[in-house]
Amino acid sequence: MINPRFEKQAFKKEVKNNVKTLFRKTIEEATPQQLFQAVSYAVKEAIIDDWIATQEQYEKDDPKMVYYMSMEFLMGRALGNNLINMTAYKEVKEALDELGIDLNAIEDQEPDPALGNGGLGRLAACFLDSLATLGYAAYGCGIRYRYGMFKQKIEDGYQVETPDNWLKDGNPFELKRPEYAKEVRFGGNIRVEYDEHGKTHFVQENYESVLAVPYDYPIVGYNNHIVNTLRIWDAEPIVDFQLDSFDRGDYHKAVEQQNLAKNIVEVLYPNDNHYAGKELRLKQQYFFVSASLQAAIAKFKKKHTDLHELPEKITIQMNDTHPTVAVAELMRILLDEENMEWNDAWEITTKTCAYTNHTIMAEALEKWPIDLFSKLLPRVYQIIQEIDRRFVIQVREMYPGNEEKVAKMQILRDGQVKMAHLAIVAGYSVNGVARLHTEILKKQELRDFYEMMPEKFNNKTNGITQRRFLMHGNPLLADWVTEKLGTKDWITDLPKMSGLKKWLDDEEALKEFMSIKYENKVRLAKYIKEHNGIEVDPTSIFDVQVKRLHEYKRQLLNILHVMYLYNQIKEHPEKSFYPRTFIFGAKASAGYIRAKQIIKLINSVADVVNNDRSINGKLKVVFIEDYRVSNAEWIFAAADVSEQISTASKEASGTGNMKFMLNGAATLGTMDGANVEIVEEVGADNAFIFGLSSDEVINYEQNGGYDSRQIYNSDPELKRVVDQLVDGTYAQGDTEMYRDLYNSLLMPQGNNQADVYFILKDFRSYAEAQEKVEAAYRDKDRWAKMVLLNTASCGKFSSDRTIQEYVDDIWKLDKETISEEI
Ligand code: 26Q
C-alpha cells in the first residue's frame, strides 16, 4: 500500500507549498538546492509519522535496545536512501518529473554527510540500516561534527584538503532536541565527603563543563514503517556568554566554556587506522559517551526503578575502543549518582557493555598517557584504577607468580591507559569482524585475554546493506535481479540471490547482465570525463581500488604494477594487450606524508601514461578526486575487477570487497580479512588470489622480516620499475620526489627490514594473477559467468545477516513490528 503522502498529487502539492513557505518562491524560481530542501521536507513529513509511531510502540512494548556507540557514522546521502526504504522512490521520481524536476539532480544537491573516515564508520551506517529493517530497537550514538571528513582536491597531483562545511544550508532531516540536553564535566579535582551514615561520596570541583545538545536523525527501515534514531551530540556553552557572565564578572570562564564547546565538536579526526594521542580527541570521546549514557539511564528510569535490571533492557556496543570510556562512565553514574555498591555496579556494567575490535595494526591501538587522562577525567580515572587493581588480583589468582602476564594484561601500565584492555576486562563480549581476523586476535594479539576468558570471544563477519549498494547505487541491476528471481525478496533476504545461479548457462541472461555492467561503465566514464577531464573507454577492463590510503592496503603495489605494464607495452608493442583502465580513489590522512606521496605517484603515472599517444589508449590511469559514499555507489556498479590487495593479516575485514562482489566484480586479492570468506562463497576458480598467506606474513614478522634486496636484484623487470621511482621517469627528471617510497622498499625501516608490507615479495604473484584476469576477461562467456556467480554468491555479506548474528549471540534484542495503518 502506498503511503498517502507519496500519492502524486499530494506530494506535488507539498513540494510546491514547501518552496513557497521556505523560500517565497515558485518551483520555476527555486534553485536546485532549494528544491532539494523542499523535497526533503516533504519526505520528512512522511517519515515523521512512522517515527512517532515507532517510538510510541517502543514505549509501549519496552523492548531491549542496543546503543551503538561510535565516533563515526559515515551515512552518505539520506534523501534517495529514505525514499528507497519508504518504497516511494519511483512514485516520487514520477511526481517530480511532472513538476519538471529531475530527482537525480536534486539528490546531487545533498551534501554527503561524512561523519566518518572509512570502513568503521560506514559499517556503523550499514548496521543502523539493517537494525531498522529487521525491526530492532536501536540508537546510534555519536558526534555532530561541525566539519566531517575533509573534501579532497587534487592540485598538481597532490592531495589538498578543504573543509567539509556540510551544515551550511541546514539539514532538512535533522531534529534538534534541546529538551534532552545533558551537562558533561571535564577536569577539576575530586573532593571526598562522608555523609551521616559514614558513606563516602566523591564530588568533582573546579571543573569545566559543556552542554551536550542532541540532534536526532531518522533511520528508516525497509518497507516496515520502523524508524529508529541516530542521535548525534552538539556542544553548547552552559553559561550564556552574553547575558549572565559578563555582568557577573565571570568573563574568562564564559569565554573558556564558549571555546571548549566550539572546539569539542569542531572536526572529525581524519585518521584511519592510526592513533593520535590528542587531548581533544579524548574530550570528544568522553563528551558523547557521557551524554549518551546519561540519556540512556534517564530513559530507562522512566519505566524502571531497579537499575539491576539495566542489562535486561539495554546493551551498549562499543565500536572499537573509541567509546570505551563508557565502561568507567557507567560505573561512575551507578556509583556516584545512583549510590550503588561497587560489586553491584560492576555486575551491571559487565553485563551491559560489549566491544568490537576492528584492527590489529599496532599503531591504531589507543593508549592514553595517564597524565593527560587523569587530568581531564579525574573521577573516571580513579574508577579505572580500581578496575585495574581488582583485575590484577584476578590475574594473579589465576596465574600465581606470573608477573609477566600481569605486565602484558594490565590496564594501567607504562604510564598509559590501555583502552583495549579496559574494553575486554569490562565487556561481556569481544568480537572481531571476519573469521581470519578473530582467529588472529585469539592466537596472537589478544591471546592472553582469550586464554583467560575464552567465553567472551566471538566472530561477527562484517556485512553491507544491499538497499544502498545495489538498489540505490545500481538500479539497473537491482531491477534485473528482481525480474530474474521473480521476486523482491532479496531486498531483505540477500541469500535469495543464489536463485540467479539458474541463469548461469543462459546466454541471453549473461548478455543482459554484461550490458548492464556496460551501462554502468558508461555512467562512470561520463563522471570521470566531467570530473577529471580524462577520456576512458567503457569497453576496457575497469580495474578498481577505492579505499582509504594506507601502506598496508598497498596502493603502491597496484601502481608499481601499472608502471610495469606500461614498460611491457612500450617494449613489446606487437604483443596483444587487452585495454585496461586502472581506477583509484583514496583519501590520505592529512599528516600521513608517505600516503600523500603515493597519491602524487599515482597522479604522475596517470599523467605520463594517459598522454602517451604511442600506446594507443591501451592503458589509462584515473585518480577519482574526493572518493566518498555518493560516488562510491557508482564506482562499485561499474567495476570489473575489485582490488583487495592488503598485506595478509592486516585488513581486519574490508567491506568494499563485499560491495564489489554484490555488483558483479571479480575479486583480485590476498587471503586477508573477509576475502577469505568471499572466496569460500564464490569458489577459488571465480576469484584471483595471490600472495603470502597471513601465517607466512606473521612468520616473517616474528623473524625480523625478509630480504627485499634479494628480490630486487634477481628480477630485472621489477628492479627497473623500482628504479623508475628515482630516475625521474615520473617526476619530470626529479630523482628525489619518490626517494622515500624507494627507500621504504629497499632500506631498513627502524628496527625492521625493508618493505614491511611485502610489496616486492608479492609482486610477481600479483602480476601473474593480473595476467589471469586478462585471460579470463578475453573469454567473454567465462567472464560473464564468473561475475554473475559473484553477484549470486554474495548472500552471506548482507549486514542483515551480521546484525541478526549480533542479536542472537550478543545483544538478545526483542523483535518489533509496526502495523500498516497509521
Ligand atoms: C584512533 C585514535 C585517535 C584518532 C583516530 C583513531 C582511529 C580512527 C578510525 C582509529 C581507527 C579508525 C578506523 C578504523 C577502521 O576503519 N577499521 C576498519 O574497520 C572496518 C569495519 O570493521 C574493516 O572492514 C576494516 O578492515 C578496518 O580497517
TrEMBL record:
Q: Does this entry carry the keyword Coiled coil? A: no
> Would the keyword Ubl conjugation be found if you checked this record's keyword annotation?
no
Instruction: Provide the cofactor list for this protein.
Output: pyridoxal 5'-phosphate
Q: What is its EC number?
A: 2.4.1.1
Q: Look at the named UniProt entry and state the broad enzyme category this protein falls under.
A: transferase
Q: Which chemical reaction does it catalyze?
A: [(1->4)-alpha-D-glucosyl](n) + phosphate = [(1->4)-alpha-D-glucosyl](n-1) + alpha-D-glucose 1-phosphate
Instruction: List UniProt keywords, sorted A-Z.
Output: Carbohydrate metabolism, Glycosyltransferase, Pyridoxal phosphate, Transferase
A Pfam family matched by this chain, by name? Phosphorylase
Spell out where the chain crosses the membrane. none
InterPro entries hit by this protein: Glycg_phsphrylas, Glyco_trans_35, Pyridoxal_P_attach_site
Q: What does this protein do?
A: Phosphorylase is an important allosteric enzyme in carbohydrate metabolism. Enzymes from different sources differ in their regulatory mechanisms and in their natural substrates. However, all known phosphorylases share catalytic and structural properties.
Q: Which family does it belong to?
A: Belongs to the glycogen phosphorylase family.
Q: Please name the NCBIfam families in this protein's record.
A: P_ylase
Which protein is depicted? Alpha-1,4 glucan phosphorylase
Write down the species.
Dorea hominis
